[in-house]
Fold:
Amino acid sequence: MLTVAVLISGTGSNLRALLDAADDPAYPARIVVVGADRDADGLEHAEAFGIPSFTVPYAAYPSREAWGAELDAQLRVWNPDLIVLSGLMRLLPPAVVHAWAPRIVNTHPAYLPDFPGAHAVRDALAAGAQQTGASVIVVDDGVDSGPILAQERVPVLPGDDEHTLHERIKPVERRLLIDVVRRVATGELDLAAASAPAGTTPDVPVRPAASTTHP
Ligand code: GAR
Structure:
């Protein structure tokens, strides 16, 4: 069973969807802890599911590195197999990324590499894009620049504002995220292979799930 820590900053609707999915005994991952960088509304979902949570308030630390060191210490208590950034609106410092790589994934409300950063939905509207999307990526040192694990297009409709467009993207994000975590848990998706430099691994970054049956 894959153990997962989820980090949030906001309402945690994608966290909630992952908690619902993991509540099914057939789902191969369990959320063991939820962390936040502020007193996030979404922490209530962890409480509702009886999942432990912690907060490392970004504003209480003198630097990103100091905040990251405490976040890392909290994560080490739970030692999850996978860390999911589900609306964590902070860049992790490189020391944290390197400590856990490639086992940190991030969900993002755009079809990367288009519209990285903290205002992806607003930026897509401002650019007059006809379509945007949702992506799940491996976290690296850059801003939403890591290897793409899953993504899907979402149309921008006439009259869309930031809220309506984001609310249309989020269900797609949830579906992609739940599926990526499932595939990591079954071994169908190998994060190390997906993150390796081109030419050092097979082109297709997947390996078959472990099987107990023999041909
Ligand atoms: C999600 O759309 C997530 O992709 C986005 O914040 C939202 C959180 O929603 N994250 C980013 O933009 C990170 N760059 P939620 O709190 O309702 O799950």
